[in-house]
Amino acid sequence: MHDPAIPSLTGADPEIARLVQAEARRQFEKVRLIASENYVSTAVLEATGSVLTNKYSEGYAGRRYYEGQQVVDPVEELAVTRARTLFGVDHANVQPYSGSPANLAVYLAFLEPGDTVMGMALPAGGHLTHGWGVSATGKWFRSAQYGVRKETGVVDLDEVRDLARAERPKVIFCGGTAIPRTIDFPGFAEIAREVGAVLVADIAHIAGLVAGGAHPSPVGHAQVITTTTHKTLRGPRGAMVLSDAEHAKAVDKAVFPGLQGGPHNHTTAAIAVALGEALDPSFGLYAHAVVQNARALAAALLDRGFDLVSGGTDNHLVLLDLTGRGVGGKPAAKALDRAGIEANYNTVPFDPRKPFDPSGVRLGTAAVTTRGLTEEQMPRVAEWIDRAVTAVGDEGELDRIAGEVAELMSGYPMPGWA
């Protein structure tokens, strides 16, 4: 059952309680390979569900617009201090509600409507809020988008430099949502300096790897860093904007009062807990294990004849290109889900298919590493993926795989399930 137990919810709203219990069981029984998901600790769950949700706190610690902040201020100060310590930055704002508002704060802080922003194109692995056309960031600002080389699946910094020189952006984003290779922060910083742009590193996917020393840090290269606090960082659904001292005031004004009112204090407390956990030396072991598992999974998939964007991975993320398999990413992802393997369909660079029915499936190893799976289990996971993709439409085979998955996962404890 769900842990912590939910007797009051069960009594007050048994329908919702039943759904919460069902979701906890679902998370326990599946191999969860969605690259943007993880399991938080029981301590983070408890902080998220605390009475701090009752308190309204517009402003910043020591500068609030409501009274009764004697407890909330120290909570936010702890989160800020831990973020600064963990990432080695001058300044941290822990109030953004999620990753997209954190990125929007960058626009409000450093751009005027119509100014040029440069980011990675969504089909190449970037994020909607890096200037993609359907996003407000692409509608309200002039967008220049870079991609990856077709032959390698990785960014060509010479092409990025040529684009930056031609477009003269005021802000350059590096990072994204489907990038399986190490981000060259020094290379991007050199380009940003040359054209006089603010470099923003969006490390939402790799923040935990950066914190644990399993991916190079953007600190000292990017003036501003945005990140969510879940994914590899194993915190609640929130976000942070980190910066050097020079850009701190603009960041804070953009978050509040520029974009939002009172922060979610229960989330702030949970962020503080997660950051405290990440400061423990054991977190570094976890971060490196995430990468080791991803590399082992990628190798096992390659052995089974799968095509991987860029040919492998340097981080937590593996991007399958199913073009050669004769099946789309969407039916493959649905078959995997039926088989007890949670993933998401995803575009691949130069995808000939439409975004809602793309050629790829995105995988990540952060959550299974939290559960305790190691490199030893990755070939078996790859076998299940191979069987499920081959068995699209064969519900009997998919159900057999799901039973095998549930049997394996029953031996690995899950925070949130007792």
UniProtKB/TrEMBL annotation:
The record marks 230 as: Plays an important role in substrate specificity. The modification N6-(pyridoxal phosphate)lysine is found at residue 231. Residues 11-385 form the Serine hydroxymethyltransferase-like domain. It is found in: Cytoplasm. Its EC number is 2.1.2.1. Its cofactor is pyridoxal 5'-phosphate. Gene3D superfamilies: Aspartate Aminotransferase, domain 1 (3.90.1150.10), Type I PLP-dependent aspartate aminotransferase-like (Major domain) (3.40.640.10). (6S)-5,6,7,8-tetrahydrofolate binds at residues 122, 126-128. The keyword Amino-acid biosynthesis applies. It catalyses: (6R)-5,10-methylene-5,6,7,8-tetrahydrofolate + glycine + H2O = (6S)-5,6,7,8-tetrahydrofolate + L-serine. Catalyzes the reversible interconversion of serine and glycine with tetrahydrofolate (THF) serving as the one-carbon carrier. This reaction serves as the major source of one-carbon groups required for the biosynthesis of purines, thymidylate, methionine, and other important biomolecules. Also exhibits THF-independent aldolase activity toward beta-hydroxyamino acids, producing glycine and aldehydes, via a retro-aldol mechanism. Belongs to the SHMT family. Homodimer. This is Serine hydroxymethyltransferase. It comes from Saccharothrix lopnurensis.
